[in-house]
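queue> holo job accepted (iron/sulfur cluster)
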Amino acid sequence: MASALDAGLGEEWLGLTRQQLCARVAERGLPAYRGRQIFQALHGRLVETLDEVRELPKRARAELGAAAALSPLRLDQVFDAADGARRYLFSVRGGHAIETVWIPDGERVTLCLSSQAGCPMRCAFCATATLGLQRNLTASEIVAQVLYVLRDAGRRSGSPRPATVNLVLMGMGEPLLNYDQVLQALRILADPDGLHIVPRRVTLSTVGIAPKIAALGREPDRPRLAVSLTAPTDALRARLMPVNLTYPLADLQQACLDFPRRDGERITFEYVLLDGVNDGEAEARALLRWLSPLRAREAAKVNLIPHNPAPGLPFRPSPPERIARFQSALRAKGLPTYVRRPRGRDIFAACGMLAATSSPSA
Ligand code: SF4
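queue> job finished
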């Protein structure tokens, strides 16, 4: 079967909700329940072609199959890390490269998804920024990352999908700049007739597009929110993250305070620790000050992320003792603070390293 890559845009069926798929099938003269059968096969049983949807009459399969492009991704390379992480380098329509990372952790697995090819946000500590924005991904391309990686995992292990699948929108791109397609993809992935990855298992990480955080808060089935903060003052943040020139820390703080949280839910603030840049006592104190209205509502937790060096980036990771001191300073004030263990560094799969690198180490 031709893929969307080969056949041009085609119909991106993987980007349709169950209801939309039923409507599309009905337009072609088939009963709507056939749409549900197709959805269940594509998203629940992870079939790759309509030919494998045996519930469909042969003739319908042939008719639909001729028009439906089911695979908007082409796998270019796979890299396996010593710690079990796996990085997939895919091509999408237009020849752009995107990446998805499989991060196993016992019975659980986390998939780190891309929402854009490249990224326009220019964060100074991130390798993806060097690519610039190539284009937004479609819902189909976002969903297909999950289907592809789970199918591959099933083939490798010979067992069905892992007991718990978490999704993080922390790969290439700023997801809130591709809002509609990201939300559409999450709706499809949450469907109980498909993968049923519920919103509390999904974390969307943003650099802080304040108006879009407000919009996300109004979504009935929204994912968890993580904010990539990395600097507690406007001057430093504007240097490290140019988004701060548009949405300064006061706007971001207000958006986070207004964000409606579910019971016990906290917003995760990610803080990439850069040696001698943002990892001192003064920054820890400033961070506590900035977070204080959120701390008062028990609305914040902090993930400290040791910087992952990548070619062309001018920063060094903070040494372990500085990381420990920074963490202690925050914890001493009762702020839940964790240090994220880097995964897949040796294959350029760790946080901030996704730059479509086609060799496992440079
Ligand atoms: S950290 Fe995220 S938002 Fe910033 S440049 Fe990298 S991919 Fe884009």
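queue> The chain has twelve helices and 14 strands.
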